[in-house]
Design brief:
Its cofactor is Zn(2+). Keywords: Hydrolase, Metal-binding, Zinc. One of its GO terms (cellular component) is cytosol. InterPro entries: Amidohydro-rel, Metal_Hydrolase, Metallo-dep_hydrolases. The protein is an alpha/beta fold and about 290 residues long. It has a single domain (about 5-20, about 25-294), classed as TIM Barrel. Helix content is about 40%, strand content about 15%. The chain has helices at about 30-45, 50-65, 90-100, 135-150, 170-180, 195-205, 210-215, 240-250, 260-265, 290-294; strands at about 5-10, 70-75, 105-110, 155-160, 185-190, 230-235, 255, 275-280. The protein has an 8-stranded parallel beta sheet. The longest helix has 17 residues, at about 50-65. The protein is globular and about 45 Å long. The mean pLDDT is about 90.
């Protein structure tokens, strides 16, 4: 018999597990992600508190069976009802309750989502469950959650900019500064799809998202000593080696999700032995720590 410590799953979207066997994502790698995303939008159309909690219980239980004892849940499906304040951010507690019932350690990565794209200042109708009007409103909610969870031994908090596609630069700077001031981990999706790079360059003077992050956001810290080891960028499938080297210098973590990136035909990131790598199951089409690391 061999004993191993529990695995850490650094990046999960638990509700994506419900798309297993349902997504028809086509034959072209460049199209797979975007077709899959449309199926994801259909999934969240009628989601409610009990449905989300049940999905999370099933997903977290499978993780425990696979030897994963800690999960970073990159959570952005926040709202059950846009017509009532009672339905605002209420779905966050469904994820927390599910983790506590299953007994898995949860880092709730509370995620800011504000727009549909680099050139689309408003969200799309199907994204209303994700959205927050202002970064100040989002931070106020994070503060409320931190207060509720301060005596919870299983659940801790991190925060995320969903992506630079979904959050404007000024708001991303504010959230980065808040993370610094409160010693909170900060995550974001980065350069998973070529279209993300193309769209970013059009409105940011030719800069890739990684360059915007490094030059426009991370240079706006307010503390004298910045601990970038609390920053995790997810995917980096199409990130230039020059920018990955800069992440190494700044001790920024790169989370790759091989099962998802392979399933969606995203590509293979240009990693080397010096990168600070962690692993995630992302869309949870397959929950297997060994496969992800092999």
């Amino acid at each position: 018999m061999a004993l191993l410590p529990g695995f850490v799953n650094a990046h999960s979207h638990a509700f994506h597990r419900e798309l297993r066997g349902l997504s028809q994502i086509g034959n072209e790698g460049a199209d797979n992600f975007w077709k899959w995303r449309q199926n994801m939008y259909k999934l969240v159309e009628d989601i409610d508190y009990e449905k989300l909690k049940k999905i999370c219980i099933d997903t977290f239980s499978e993780m425990l069976s696979a030897g994963i004892t800690t999960v970073g849940e990159f959570h952005y499906v926040h709202h059950s009802n846009k017509a009532s304040s009672d339905g605002f951010f209420d779905l966050d507690m469904a994820v927390i309750e599910a983790a506590c019932e299953v007994g898995i350690r949860l880092v709730l990565i509370e995620t800011l989502y504000m727009r549909a794209g680099f050139s689309q200042p408003e969200i799309n109708p199907e994204q209303w469950r994700f959205s927050c009007a202002t970064v100040e409103q989002f931070i106020e909610h994070v503060e409320d959650l931190r207060e509720k969870l301060k005596n919870n031994d299983l659940v801790t908090m991190a925060i995320a900019v969903h992506s630079l596609r979904a959050v404007p630069i000024p708001e991303a700077i504010k959230l980065y500064q808040y993370a610094q001031q409160n010693n909170l981990p900060l995550h974001l999706h980065l350069e998973e799809q070529p279209a993300e790079l193309d769209d970013c360059r059009l409105v940011n003077e030719g800069k890739d998202p990684a360059e915007v992050l490094l030059q426009n956001i991370l240079e706006n810290g307010e503390t004298e000593e910045i601990d970038n080891s609390l920053i995790t960028v997810v995917h980096c499938t199409h990130t230039k080696r020059l920018n990955l080297d800069e992440f190494v210098k700044r001790k920024i973590n790169v989370c790759i999700c091989p099962c998802t990136e392979g399933y969606l035909g995203d590509g293979i990131p240009n990693l080397n032995e010096f990168d600070n790598i962690c692993l995630g199951t992302d869309c949870n089409n397959r929950i297997e720590a060994y496969v992800s690391s092999s």
